[in-house]
Amino acid sequence: MSLDDRDWYRDAQRERAKQRKMDETRSRFSAFSRKHLGAKVVSPIKTGLIPIMLFWLAVMGLLYMLMEYNLKPRQAKVLANGDLVIHRAQDGHFYTTGKINGREATFMVDTGASLVAVSEEFAQKAGMLGGMPTTFKTANGNLAGRVVEGVSVSIGPVSVSNVKAGVGLHLGDESSALLGQSFLSKFDITMSDKQMVLRPRNAGR
Predict the structure, then answer these.
(1) Within-domain flag for 196
(2) Count of domains for the chain
(3) Looking at the domain assignment, is residue 205 inside a domain?
(4) pTM recorded for the entire structure
(5) Own/partner long-range contacts of 82-85 (Cβ < 8 Å, ≥24 apart)
(6) CA-based angle 164:165:170, to the nearest 5?
(7) What span, in angstroms and rounded, lies between the C-alpha atoms of 2 and 87?
(8) pLDDT tens, 152-168?
């Protein structure tokens, strides 16, 4: 055997040994996958990165929609006896949708607030003009505003007229409002871990 033949033979042997090691590694990986994952693992090269990314984007989109649905304020449930049932949200507060002077509002129930309260932008669009100038004491200091009387507030079929409302608070987006005692005082309120029930005080009288 010539020198060139010997070199070729050694190279061929090394290639065969390398191929055997690769085959053994693949075999061990496949055996491990079948044993621990219960299914044949598809090569990441064959699967591709884009399908994986699309899958996780779809999962995240679904989770986002579920969160939006759970956090979105819903209309209070009206029972046959006229009671309003408001469910507690994930953040621990009670929210419901309704109307102020016929304009859609998203209420956060605040039993410690003396008035129904809205922003100046909401008040202008709801026709809540004039009123008595006042100063609201907030966590961020004093805030100039006004108190308007004769406001109509409704939740579902239940409506209360001649409600006092504070105008000028900053409550987040324009449609946000606080549902305070100028509305809540017309109801007997019972509260549990999961819900708040408002029963009109003239019910059954």
Answers:
(1) yes
(2) 2
(3) no
(4) 0.63
(5) 82/158, 82/199, 82/200, 82/203, 83/197, 83/198, 83/199, 83/203, 84/155, 84/156, 84/158, 84/187, 84/197, 84/198, 84/199, 85/195, 85/196, 85/197
(6) 165
(7) 91
(8) 999 989 999 999 999 99
